[in-house]
Amino acid sequence: MAHHHSAKKKINQDEARRLRNRYYAVTMRNAVRKIRATKEKEEAEKALPGVTKMIDKLAKKHVIHKNKAANLKSELQLLVNKL
Fold first, then answer.
1. pLDDT for 34
2. Which residue of 1, 5, 14, 31 has the smallest Cβ count within 10 Å?
């Protein structure tokens, strides 16, 4: 158990960041699932820029790896183009 004030504060900060990162990652995954489930091209094209922006932000903040972000964006773009 942490004894110093700074160590206790660091534990609290880490927990808050973990929960925040988890929330954003789950939100991104749900948005990706929604695009994958879409059958209409117009709806998918409308949602794609927002999801791409979300993926880029998460990669920038190191919530997801930059290569995973690139792979997700590429896959979604191909999927939307095929519709």
1. 94
2. 1
What residues have CB less than 8 Å from 77, skipping those under 6 apart? 48
The secondary structure of residue 39, as a DSSP letter, is: -
CA dihedral sign, ordered 36, 38, 39, 42: negative
Q: Which two tokens stand for residue 61?
A: 């903040």
- pTM surpassing 0.85? no
Locus of tokens 């949602």: 47
- The DSSP call for residue 61 is T
Residues 48 and 80: beta-carbon distance below 8 Å: yes
